[in-house]
Amino acid sequence: xxxxxxxxxxxxxxxxxxxxxxxxxxxxxxxxxxxxxxxxxxxxxxxxxxxxxxxxxxxxxxxxxxxxxxxxxxxxxxxxxxxxxxxxxxxxxxxxxxxxxxxxxxxxxxxxxxx
Length: 115
Known about the structure:
The protein contains five helices and no strands. It is mainly alpha-helical and about 120 residues long. Helix 3 runs antiparallel to helix 4.
């Protein structure tokens, strides 16, 4: 089963310098943990995984997605969907998970629904 190996960097093991990224150590860890949970989940539904998280974790993920989508001016539909209420009651999609992997972790991830 694929995994991100919970990328929670420290100063000693990050493969980049602190001033070369828009993201924090917490951002990497939040994205990695969430993506790992989605990949492990048998339903293949990011929204189901998201709903099981604590309110604080949900808000961390929503805030991170808003920051990621705001980096690309072509992502206005996604951005308005998430920032409308900036709450923990949003529908997280596979596209959201893929963009977190790409933009935060620097990993290309393609999630397919295999039956």
